[in-house]
Each structure stands twice: as structure tokens, then as C-alpha cells.
Amino acid sequence: MSLSATLWQTNLDLARASLEHPFVQGIGTGDLPPERFAYYIGQDAFYLEAFARAFSIAAARAPDQDGFRVLHTLIAGVLQELQLHAGYATTWNVDMRTVEPGIATRRYTDFLLATAWGYDTGLTAVAMSPCMQLYAFLGQELAHAGIPDHRYANWIRTYSDPQFMHLVDQLQGLVDRYASATPLVQQTYRYAMQCEHDFFQAAWEWRAA
Fold first, then answer.
1. pLDDT 10s digits, 71-125
2. Farthest CA pair distance, the chain
3. Tens digits of per-residue pLDDT, 84-94?
4. Residue-wise over 103-140: b if at least 16 C-beta within 10 A, else e?
5. Which CATH architecture is the domain 3-205 placed in?
6. Sign of the alpha-carbon torsion through 194, 200, 204, 208
7. Does the pTM exceed 0.85?
């Protein structure tokens, strides 16, 4: 089994915990309160900017041209995702200029950027892999019986799309190519997966001031 597959299987408990989280389940059923989704969109846009920056740092440090090209493809994918969020912001009346990162968001983005600046491309790929693979997993699971017809359908459609899974596979390939099964790799992956769950929890707990 590849390293990326082993890391995913080892941390499947956290992936399933995210799937079963009421925030994610609310997206699946369409019953999630709109104000919580709006808060999440603002936080996720802030996160995705940091995600793109971490990819950029990893690309600059890539040990070969193939890795450099793949990372720039992934950056382009994140920028497309940010465009989707801009559309969400208009729909949900979120002013991206006024978004302040919450504690869970800042903890996650600081971790990603510190990893990108402080370690090699392999560990950065490991730190970023849970986000993309988890979202593909969530999208596919929520779309298992067909994409529902409700206000969160586009979210499910985006992350269940085979094109998104293609990007996930490219990132997993970087993990397998540049990282090895060290305790630091295992801890980094686990921490990132926990940050994902905490991100949903923070959005679920959010209350308007």
C-alpha cells in the first residue's frame, strides 16, 4: 500500500467523524442554517488563500520540474475554488473584505504555512493532503444517492466531481514521491486531519454577535 493510502486508512476515524459531523450532514440534507454556511464560506476563503500560498512555497522548493509543474496545477485548482467561493459570497451576502479568521482557521493556516516554510516539499504535501482527500471523500459520500436539489447542491457537486479527485490524486502522488513513513509525517497528517474536523466544529458553533 502506498504511503498516501496508508495515511488515509490510518486516519479514517477522523474522516468519518467529519462526515458524521452535524455541519457536514446539514450540507448533505440541505438543513444547515444558512448563517453557519455563510460564516464557513468566509473562513474557508481565508483558509484557501493560505493553502494556495503554501502550495506556492512548496513549488519553489520542489526538487524537480515534475513536482514544480504538478504544484502549479494544484495552485490553479485552488484559485478556481476561490472563484467558486466568490460566487458563494455574493449569494450568501458575505463581504470577504471584512472576514476575520477564527481561532480554528488561524490555527490551521499557521500550521500549513509554518510547515511550508520550515520543511521540505514532501512534508508540505503531507500537511495539505488531508484537506483535499477529505473533501473528495465528503463530496462522494454526500452524492452517493445522487446530488440533491437544495441550496448546498453546488458544494456537493464540486467536491464529488471526478476533476477534483484528479487533483487529489496528483497531490497524493507528491506525498508518495517525496515523503516517507516517519513519525513526523504521521503526526503531521493526523494533526491536519484533526484541524479539518475542528474547522467544521467551529462553523457549527458559530453564533452571530
1. 999 999 888 887 777 776 677 677 767 778 999 999 999 999 999 999 999 999 9
2. 49
3. 777 766 776 77
4. ebbebbbebbbebbeebebbbbbbbbbbbbbbbbbbbb
5. Up-down Bundle (1.20)
6. positive
7. yes
Question: In Å, what is the CA distance from 199 to each residue of 4, 45, 61, 147?
Answer: 22, 12, 28, 24
CA dihedral 110, 112, 115, 120 (to 10 degrees): -150
Domain positions in the chain: 3-205
Q: Locate 10 and state its grid cell.
A: 490510518
